[in-house]
Amino acid sequence: MLDWSGIYHILATPFLDDGSLDAEGIPRLVDAVLGSGVTGITILGIAGEAHRLTDEERRRVVDAVVKEVRGRVPVAVGVSASGTHLACGYAAMAREHGADAVMVAPPAGARNLDAVAEYYQAVAAAARLPVVLQDEPVTTQVVMPPAFLARLVAEVEAAQAVKLEEAPTPVKITRLRELGGRQVPIFGGLGGVYFFEELSRGADGAMTGFPYPEALRAIREAFVAGRRDDARALFYRWLPLIRYESQPGSTPGTAIGIRKEILRRRGWIASARVRPPAPALDAGTMDELSEILRAVGA
Q1: Separation of alpha carbons 290 and 200, rounded Å
Q2: Distant-in-sequence contacts of 280-288, Cβ < 8 A, 24+ apart
Q3: pLDDT surpasses 90 at 1
Q4: Which H or E run contains 134?
Q5: Tens digit of pLDDT for each residue in 180-208?
Q6: How far is CA 88 from CA 12, 94, 97, 101, 120, in A?
Q7: SS3 for 9-64, per residue?
Q8: Which among 111, 118, 166, 288 has most CB atoms closer than 10 A?
Q9: What is the pLDDT of residues 246-292, one digit of tens each?
């Protein structure tokens, strides 16, 4: 069993200023993330712009990350797709290139939950790896109620963790725990915007690309150590940046652009380029970001 706890950082995909894949920059980004003390790395998620990569670029990213990690932490690979056959292909590729697990969201727009369950069974069979069930209705437009997630955990033997991103996540954590049955670790996402409350409801960690993963790690460590007030104080310190960086309700490109700009300022990536269609950050956003970073002491 993998260690499904702590902070699994959703890796950004670095590009050069011309929009091409920055393959040489991937090892530098991986090492910076590992230096922050994360438990695991998740790649090719929504925040990793997986939907803007060619199949060959996906393969190159998986290969580069796995080789640089060298088994120091688990690597989970996002393999979600609009069709079962496509997701199965991505899952098989991830396994062949050394992934430790796959993260799977339902196919976009699916309304028949029985078909969604069949999709998960097929992808798990193709992956032959532990599966993270990603509950992300904003992008997929698929709502998976707690009872259905519990059904997937019961029916998909490879399901080892759940990542919740249907707000409000704390309520959903409680409902999942109350349903009983086979219990698996639960991660919050959404940039960490509910992280303290998620921990209070029984979450095991966060799986998000917030560009200060060491801050999330410190919050969880304080909470697990029983220093609830310290954990809350740390969370409140970082909350202005968590809120601004996640840009709830915005076009996805804006949030990713802010995240990448922070990573660029930290020296973790060379360029903050986000692939189109995505709006460029305006001068006001850049100024606001600088002000918030100063305010939180980043």
Answers
A1: 31
A2: 281/254, 281/257, 285/254, 285/258, 286/261, 288/244
A3: no
A4: strand 131-135
A5: 899 999 999 999 999 999 999 999 999 99
A6: 23, 10, 14, 13, 9
A7: EECCCCECCCCCECCCHHHHHHHHHHHCCCCEEEECCCCCCHHHCCHHHHHHHHHH
A8: 166
A9: 876 555 567 899 999 999 999 999 999 999 988 889 999 999 999 99
